[in-house]
Amino acid sequence: MEETISLRELFAVLRKRLWLIVLITIVAATVSAVISFFVLTPVYQSKTQILVNQAKSDEQLYNMQAVQTNIQLINTYNDIITSPVILDKVIKELKLDGSGQSLSGKIQVINAKDSQVVQIVVQDTNAKRATDIANTTASVFQKEVPKIMNVDNVKVLSKATVGESSSPVKPQPLLNVAIAIVVGLMLGIGLSFLLEYLDNTLKTEQDIENILELPVMGVVTTIKDVPKATNVQRPDITARVPQRGETFGS
């Protein structure tokens, strides 16, 4: 026996358990808002830019081969920036707590395809510290790269400022609440259909017709018990047989 579900039945299920869907959505949004505003620690982001460009003499002409060489060096520079040889000096100069490995987790090196500009992005729970780490990392890298690679082709293009990192990048409360609302709606709708699927009781005549495929001929209604009367005095009724020649009631 094939079972088909119409859109009307689907909407009936949603309307029946609308309270459950709304409740789950409100709870999810409230929990997300509380965690975003009061539990999670704000994270600030700061970034600086460095330019990888080989210094040229007056006789040296600008050519694409030199540009490609610099671009290929960027992949190597990305690894050097987050290496202990650079970060250990950054920690020592800024007197930071932790190791170079922990500091590496806060630093991200980004460069666009076929671009000689590299961005050093730092995320930290303190806006000023994030700015100091970004600027110091770029400065230390500029000083150390000639010793490591025997080339002097790195220049700090722009420094990070505290004003740019005054607003936290994480968490984003409004985005988190919006995601929680969507998840709450999905969870509430899914739970409603699950409860409806697990409910195998018959509640209406239509349920019987759908399962047995037979018309309902009659319905027995529920009859409430009538309370028995107590201490009720019955009237004294006596019957007398009329005598001969006497009419009844005379």
From TrEMBL:
Instruction: State if Protease is listed as a keyword.
Output: no
Membrane topology classification: Multi-pass membrane protein
Pinpoint the Tyrosine-protein kinase G-rich domain residues.
138-194
Gene Ontology CC annotation, any one: plasma membrane
Keywords for the protein's UniProt record, in alphabetical order: Cell membrane, Membrane, Transmembrane, Transmembrane helix
Coiled-coil-forming residues are: none
Question: In its UniProt entry, what is this protein called?
Answer: Capsular polysaccharide biosynthesis protein
Q: Which organism is it from?
A: Priestia megaterium (strain ATCC 12872 / QMB1551)
